[in-house]
């Protein structure tokens, strides 16, 4: 009997179909399709409250021609919605304490004036994105009464701020609630469909489930192609949700380089990790200043000191989507108050010309374009590799060649390889240059050179 059972089992085993051979063919990545207008985009963050003496859309609209002439492409408006009064910080409150997701803060103007701002931006060839606060609302947002189940609760049942934060003026949402997801997605669609905005910067995007953002992205793209920037640093956000994520690692590496004077190693490591482990289509937003840094840390020119211009330049010619914070072009020299009216003092700053040249260079040079549109960075080894980082981007005949002394020590460098050989023009000074292999390049502390190839 045992033999018969064994024999039957063996026969059944022999009759079992062989497992299919795994398919080892590389599969195309699932990635967000970036709108064509992000190809060479430069972001400009605008805090409407502080941007003009009036602090209104109408006053900011008058400055749009200047921004267009600078060459920026996408205007990121900090939150424009009514601000909560319960638990408000300061006399005017945080714009990130939203009382109504489908209304305009009357301090900034009317819906008609906001619409006029967007229309004028579009007429000038600019795009407009809104800062969106999906993770939490003001404590006196009417949703806390009409839909109390949409909020996270303390063990005692009270509304609570996001866990582990000092954001005492906002109440945390509970994204396990499908109706909340529907309301928030429909609110995102509302501003794109009815006002024509072009996308969003998502505040603390990682505090909200990724699948929410993926669903919202699909709904937004059904209206028109949009651009989404996540205030977060995570590769998976680029799969089906976001075009761009914050490159906090770039900012940290650059600031560490300036602080400890250790040389080019940190930035070289950042770009290597970016190239190897992030999706090629991922736009990584790099910046030397923004509202958080300016208000809570220090003024950018103080943080970077003599390396400030080098940091700005590297944010434009290295891989990444560069950001300009309002006032940088006017040499913003103080921390703007976050909860009060504190208008920028405008002038033509000494960095204005640098920003304009870098924007023009990025626009004109396909090698410097964003994400999959641009070219990889190819390092050009130097005789002072510990301190100097040099690279080319682009094909021969249309390359950009950049050399950065990322140290407080002067260097004179030579180049052992022919990766950069050719005829160039200095993108900043306009002077002609030629590299054939015998050159020695003198670089003062924190100096940089950027060259565009000529035929």
Structure, described:
With 455 residues, this protein is an alpha/beta fold. The chain has 2 domains: 36-246 and 279-373, Glycosidases (TIM Barrel); 377-453, Golgi alpha-mannosidase II (Immunoglobulin-like), CATH 2.60.40.1180. The protein has helices at residues 2-15, 48-51, 57-61, 64-70, 111-123, 143-146, 178-195, 210-221, 237-240, 248-260, 265-277, 291-296, 300-304, 308-317, 352-364; strands at residues 43-46, 74-77, 127-132, 136-138, 170-172, 199-202, 227-230, 244-246, 283-287, 321-325, 377-379, 388-393, 400-405, 411-414, 422-426, 432-435, 440-443, 448-453. The strands form 4 sheets. Strands 1-2-3-6-7-8-9-10 form an 8-stranded parallel β-barrel. A 6-stranded antiparallel β-sheet has the order 11-12-13-18-15-16, covered by helices on one side. Strands 4-5 form a two-stranded antiparallel sheet. Helix 9 (237-240) links the parallel strand 7 and strand 8. It is globular, with a radius of gyration of 26 Å. It starts with a helix and ends with a strand.
Biggest pleated sheet: 8 strands, parallel, barrel
SS content category? alpha/beta
Rg, nearest Å: 26 Å
Cα(first) to Cα(last) distance is 88 Å
Strand residue percentage: 15-25%
Per the CATH scheme, the topology name of the largest domain is TIM Barrel
What is the level-2 CATH architecture name of the largest domain? Alpha-Beta Barrel
How many domain units?
2
CATH homologous group name of the largest domain: Glycosidases
Strand order, main sheet: write it out. Answer: 1-2-3-6-7-8-9-10
Q: Tell me, what's the shape?
A: globular
Strand tally is: 18
